Amino acid sequence: MGKVILDIIALSGREIILSDESTDLFSASFRKDRRIVELWTAADERIFISHFSMRGMLFAFHLSSDLREVARAVESWLMDELTLRDMKQRVPNLDVSELCFETEAGRGVEARWNNLLLVPYDNDPIRASWLDPECGALIRAASHRPLLRQLVPLVDQGCTLLFSRTLGYPYTIAGDCGIWATGGRYIAVKKDGSHLAEGTPEEMLDVLEGTLPPDIGPAIFGTADDLVA
Q1: Domain check: are 58 and 22 in the same one?
Q2: Which tens digit of pLDDT belongs to each residue from 164-214?
Q3: Are residues 119 and 61 in the same domain?
Q4: Which residue has the higher pLDDT, 3 or 46?
Q5: How far is residue 101's CA from residue 151's CA, in Å, rounded to a whole number?
Q6: What pLDDT does residue 43 have?
Q7: What are the beta bridge partners of residue 38?
Q8: Is the pLDDT of residue 44 over 70?
Q9: In this predicted structure, what is the pLDDT of residue 14?
C-alpha cells in the first residue's frame, strides 16, 4: 500500500522524499522529522484508515475509500507540513479535535486541564461517568495549584492522577508518585505500587508536590526524548 501511495504522489511531478517504513502489505507508515502518518486497511471493506501524529501526539484521524485522497492527505501533512486548519480545508472527512487545535496553537496544557475538568459535565453519559467522583474532586483541587497547573494531568483507569512533563507519548511522569482516588480514599502511591501516604485530597497533593524536583518547569510539546536530562 505504501508504494501505491508514493506512486500517486509522484504523478504530480514532485520529488519523493518519503519512504514506507512498514513491511506489511495492508499498512503503511511514513515519517518526516517529527511528523508521522500511519495507515492501514479495514479488511474486506476497502476503507483506508489514517492517523496523523506529531511530537508523540495523535493530531488527526481520517477515513476514506479513495486512495488518491489518502495520498493527498499524506502529501499535505508530511511534504507540505500544513497546519491542522489548512489540512481541514484541503482533506475531506478529516477528524480533528479541539484539543489538537489548541495544542498546535501552544495551549495544549491548558486544553488538557479543561478537558478533564469538563468530563463530569459531558452530555455523553458514558464519558461523564468515566472518572470516579473522588478523582474528579482531586482534579478540581489540583487545578488550583500553580505548580501542578503547568504540568499535564493524566488519569489512569479513571481513578489514579499523575502528572507529565510532556504533552506527547511516551510521557515523562513528574515526581515519584501518583494519587489513587476511589471508594472515598486518597492514597499517594509510589511508582513501585507501594503506598506512601493516605489522607485528604489536599494532603495528598502536598505529598505529590513534595516529590517534584525544585527546578521543574512547564510541560513541553514533545516526548520524553525531548527533555534535557
Answers
A1: yes
A2: 999 999 999 999 999 999 899 999 999 888 999 999 999 999 999 999 988
A3: no
A4: 3
A5: 19
A6: 67
A7: 29, 51
A8: no
A9: 86
* 168 burial level (CB within 10 Å; 0-12, 13-18, 19+): buried
With the C-alpha atoms ordered 170, 175, 178, 179, is the resulting torsion angle positive or negative? Answer: negative
| Residue 160 phi, psi (nearest 5) | -120, 120
Amino acid symbol at 32: K
Mean pLDDT for the stretch of residues 38-49? 86
C-alpha cell belonging to residue 183: 471508594
Cis amide linkage into residue 153, ω under 30° from 0: no
Residue 165 lies in domain: 108-226
For 113, other C-beta atoms within 10 Å of its C-beta total: 19
Please state, in angstroms and rounded to a whole number, the distance separating the CA atoms of residues 160 and 147.
Answer: 19
d(CA 160, CA 195) in angstroms, rounded, equals 13
Name which of 218, 217, 198 is nearest 208 in CA terms: 198
| Segment (H or E) for 101 | helix 98-104
CA dist., res. 24 & res. 198, Å (int): 49
Number of domains in the chain: 2
Region of 183 on the Ramachandran plot (φ > 0 left; ψ -120 to 50 alpha; else beta): left
R_g of the chain, CA atoms, integer Å = 21
